[in-house]
Amino acid sequence: MRAVWLAIVFTVGLIFAPAGAQAAPGHVYLLKGLANVFSTGLDNYAAELTRRRIPVTVANHTEAASLANEAARLYKAGKGPIVIVGHSLGGAASTQMAEIMQREGAKVALIVNYGPPGNQVIPGNVARVVNYYGVVGGIAVRGPGSRASITNVNLGSDPAINHFNMEKSPRLQAKTMGQILSVLRSGHRGPKVARTPQQHSASAGVAQ
């Protein structure tokens, strides 16, 4: 019960926080799943970030490659940190974005995934990953050279949350928004990384 009240208090704080309070640079990418039909919870993030005047892009998972090139340019122009949030196929696309950005010598400060299909192998240019999964969805694991802080959260025991509504949960939205704002305010742009040659993702590793 205490956790529920804390989530409510935090959500109210987000709603009534001054829109101009967030002045740090950065860009948040919100990647939707199949046909954008089941990922409408990400629109809540977009609305709140826009209200706070934080640059945000909402897109389908199929646009990951072009968005990665854009994000790499922003990062190298000093407009990081870069944050990526993905739901379902958008979760897999977040890893794809990070891999492309690594080849371009750019970093990702935070990835938050909701129910990505299959295990996600996190490249070495990502600083932190929070991965929610349940009956559907895989875990996040460190790839070669990665020192990412990875938190895998199993939602399978919560009967109120499933693959199609996890990104809509007010409790999880409040928590994720807090993590996004913390990263942007800190200005932490990501781990040390150098431009690397193109490489294929490794298969699933050991859960972190």
Give the topology.
Elements: H1 2-16, E1 27-32, H2 42-51, E2 56-60, H3 64-76, E3 82-87, H4 89-103, E4 110-114, E5 120-122, E6 128-133, E7 140-142, E8 149-154, H5 170-186
Parallel strand pairs: 1-2, 1-3, 3-4, 4-6, 5-7, 6-8
Helix pairs in contact: 1-5, 3-4
**What percentage of amino acids are in beta strands?**
15-25%
Q: Tell me about the biggest sheet? A: 6 strands, parallel
Order of helices and strands: HEHEHEHEEEEEH
Q: Find the structural class using helix and strand composition.
A: alpha/beta
DSSP summary: helix tally: 5
Radius of gyration: 16 Å
Please count the beta strands (DSSP E, at least 2 residues each).
Answer: 8
Task: Sum up the overall morphology in one term.
Answer: globular
Classify the helix fraction into a percent range. 25-40%
Note the gap between the termini. 29 Å
**Parts with pLDDT < 50 across at least 5 consecutive residues:** 1-23, 194-208
- The spatial strand order of the largest sheet comes to 2-1-3-4-6-8
What does the average pLDDT come to?
A: 85
Please tell me about this protein's structure.
By secondary structure, the chain is an alpha/beta fold. The protein has 5 helices and 8 strands; from the N terminus they run αβαβαβαβββββα. α4 (89-103) links the parallel β3 and β4. The longest helix has 17 residues, at 170-186. The two termini are 29 Å apart. Residues 1-23 and 194-208 have low confidence and may be disordered.
